[in-house]
Write a structure and sequence with these properties.
2 copies of one chain form a homodimer. By secondary structure, the first copy, chain A, is α+β, with helices and mostly antiparallel strands. Chain A is built from 17 helices and 20 strands. Chain A has a 7-stranded mixed β-sheet with strand order 4-12-11-10-9-5-6, sandwiched between helices. In chain A, strands 13-14-15-16-20-19 form a 6-stranded antiparallel β-sheet. In chain A, strands 2-3 form a two-stranded antiparallel ribbon. At the A-B interface, helix 1, strand 1, strand 2, helix 6 and helix 7 of A face helix 1, strand 1, strand 2, helix 6 and helix 7 of B. Chains A, B: This is PLP-dependent transferase.
Amino acid sequence: MSSEKRPKAIDLSHHVSDFARRYALSPLKGLQKYYGKDTIGLAGGLPSPDYFPFTSVSANILPVDAFPLTVPRASSPASASSSAFGWLWRIFGGGAGRRDDTTTRIEVPREPRPDDGGVNLAAALQYGPATGLPRLQKFMHEFTERVYAPGYDNWTTLVHTGNTDAWGRISKLLLNPGDTLLVEEWTYPSAMASARPIDARWHGVPMDNQGMRADALREILAGWDVEKSGPRPRVIYTVPVGQNPCGTTMGLERKKAIYDICVEYDLIIAEDDPYFFIQIGEFVPKSQRKAERESPAGEEVSRFIDSLVPSFLRVDTQGRVIRMDTFSKTIAPGVRLGWFTCNPLFVERLERIGETSAQNPCGLGQALVVALLTQWTFDGYIRWLRGLRTQYQHRRDFLVDCLAEEFELSPEPSITTSGGPALLCAYPRGSGSGGLLGKKARPLLSFVPPSSGMFVWVKLHFGDVPDKRDESDGSVLTPDRQFWEKLAKAGVLVGPGWIFAPALGAPPTEADRQTGYVRVSYTPSDMETTRQGIKIFAQTLREFCRV
Amino acid sequence: MSSEKRPKAIDLSHHVSDFARRYALSPLKGLQKYYGKDTIGLAGGLPSPDYFPFTSVSANILPVDAFPLTVPRASSPASASSSAFGWLWRIFGGGAGRRDDTTTRIEVPREPRPDDGGVNLAAALQYGPATGLPRLQKFMHEFTERVYAPGYDNWTTLVHTGNTDAWGRISKLLLNPGDTLLVEEWTYPSAMASARPIDARWHGVPMDNQGMRADALREILAGWDVEKSGPRPRVIYTVPVGQNPCGTTMGLERKKAIYDICVEYDLIIAEDDPYFFIQIGEFVPKSQRKAERESPAGEEVSRFIDSLVPSFLRVDTQGRVIRMDTFSKTIAPGVRLGWFTCNPLFVERLERIGETSAQNPCGLGQALVVALLTQWTFDGYIRWLRGLRTQYQHRRDFLVDCLAEEFELSPEPSITTSGGPALLCAYPRGSGSGGLLGKKARPLLSFVPPSSGMFVWVKLHFGDVPDKRDESDGSVLTPDRQFWEKLAKAGVLVGPGWIFAPALGAPPTEADRQTGYVRVSYTPSDMETTRQGIKIFAQTLREFCRV
């Protein structure tokens, strides 16, 4: 891709909000051109590095191959939950001696050295520019080129403190009061949280098994009534991979179709992609599962990158995609570090917005992450990501296997649209073959096993459970709220579906009323606990639906 | 203070901006009440701590008494610049063996332990609430009570990622478009940078040697013309200690007077106080300088706290002060950590605003700072701050001594208003006694040596230097701009006065035109370099003024 001649970004300055437009370049920036190697600086309020109490910071880190690329066959939910946990700990070197054997020590030294890219405490503990440590900048740029290969030439990157910060800044960059933001039919609450104070609205675009539907998007834009609904939307917020909460993943063709509509109607795409590297493949029932074949030596890196659904950046020839990357799911959320990739005009404004909010990310976090990546190398980091993918694949399989132990799971390919993975319907055990024509034709729940991310989006079919009154405030409790609370009282928390609804407060139809959604995550708890949670979940649901 | 009965904060909800008002409580927060010790969590998108590649993080830290409480007499600028530097390095344990002898190792372990207050990698590397690690919360609260002793009862604290983030959030909390923010006559550019995108204006309040003048504030408010200037100001942004750029410090009486006006006119005070612990006492000429007497044993902590001009919080009986504390000047800027102290209503909104911007501060930074403070203890941290104070006092003295070597410095107490420290006027060496009545009565520069902070605000008296045209764009270059550029080309950067002017772009009067300001900082460069810089500064100024 990099050898091809790529077009330049087009002028999209009309998308900058009034708020973002008013930012001025800091007058201090004007001074930077005067700084030379031998300049005597008496201008700034920087404390002397001699006064920083940390004289060195170091960490022990796992090796890049801490996690295997194949999952042992033994890890069935019934027998192996505890042994699976033990297996994990063996792999991690969880034993007292083992961990020290396999970890490496990285250090951020006090004094700068030539070509250290700012990875020293004198720089990392000092005020820094909102653009981050030089070596981190270099990493972000090279990683983006090699992994995402944007479709235009003059894209650029900018560090941020995680995708929440990133989307907060993007919403300020693009949205004016009264604007409508397009989101997926079910979406991450944070998307709405950032739009609300700006007095922007949001509108859900219907989804299928690949996430946002291109035809539905076009219909909304073509039929937009400016009189009734205000300015036509200019911004899409999307989680294209492992969508939150639905777990869907957009294929390349879908991305192209949506991008083309954005070109036609002049929209900007905010691509929030924390789960990009958790592309774990389609779910395969346990009996048919095979270990992934190893890549031929020397081809591991390119084969892995090629195996991933490309980013929206790949189809972006005009600079209308703002991609958000984060280390939260690949290193750790607590480092609060990630980066934007977009056109230079937007990056310049995002930097200004950052200068009066998060400012530069914590230097200790930056330095330790960069030291880790330097120690690992690019190829090593890819190996680490492959190991993580296997872990999450295993956890996804494990959760679905747990559900298969509690219910009779039956695929219903006829319900699936647009060629995605099949819907699985779950019937009470012993209710016969299930299926749509059987006597007990109503499934208790249904879901599509996700091929990316961390979540199973489970539709619950309650049947004919009546509404209840809340004892404390007299409000109506629909069945989904009754069930969620019953489950919580039984000691299991799942994500309540209604918090992901863009149309919060819309009265449910009768059909809606007898269904509900929960987002079940296979990542936060260890396997034994997850299995226990699914057991309680299943039992509570059976009781609730009186089957 | 804590034993007295203090009043509750009054209702100040009408000060919340429309922007801040629209934030909603995240629906996810509603789930927290269901979390018990044995709850099985399948709700969140938290990665398993097993997948964090850091298995331990540690640091070497200086001892609390790394810096002495008295400065050796030998450190005169002429002889001791290099030896002073050597002395600093001796103190720091800069020698190869020495540093390890005196530093202590702190570690953030991987596994949680009971009562560790979140100082473990499982918590620090995970998503965290915007309120920070529990032990950090505890520290901030106790520190605020002991050091600032707020004048009302239900004040509360909230972590932020440095005072830039803090003021960014406060401006969003309080300012509506069209509002006018009151600032000091010369102010920190960041204050204006955050107000600008909101479409708020700013208005400078005249200052004297104690900073913002209470009488001038009252005059502005009493005479405010709503028709002409929009809504009467509701917010003051102030740097009361070691003001940036002027270096002035407000005494308690001044703070009381300003606070009373804020009660009368219903204003909120945003107290940006990064230099609070750099209260270094009035400047004493070298010949009269004596080493500070040691505090009696057992009284060091309370004597130190009592020696500091109290915060605005001390006089706040209604909850109308939002104080910003930061670790940037006391630990290191790169940790990006600080905290708000204010009424619970404002803190709740500031937390919401933080949730969609900086989110929780970097966990590695939080954990390392808390581990450091835990190791040091409260009393130890106070000892560290006392050592820092001595360092900055020494640096301030050194800079003024350097100026005294280049110029004939003469105090002009008659020019000083309101009983603050005396103005020093600098005359060319050999021009006689200087003084207002002498032949060469015009000083080249004048300044008040600051009793706090990091800056000397130097007024330059150019005499009759003509304007010039900029060769590149034909714009008029007033003498202050000509001099600043000439100095930069000579290799010395000082803070150009005009970037601190709230009334940017106002045409200067003829008297203004022949003066200018520069902010000279004694903190970023080592002493030898500082001395060299002042030499070049003095020579450049003499040449520029042809004396």
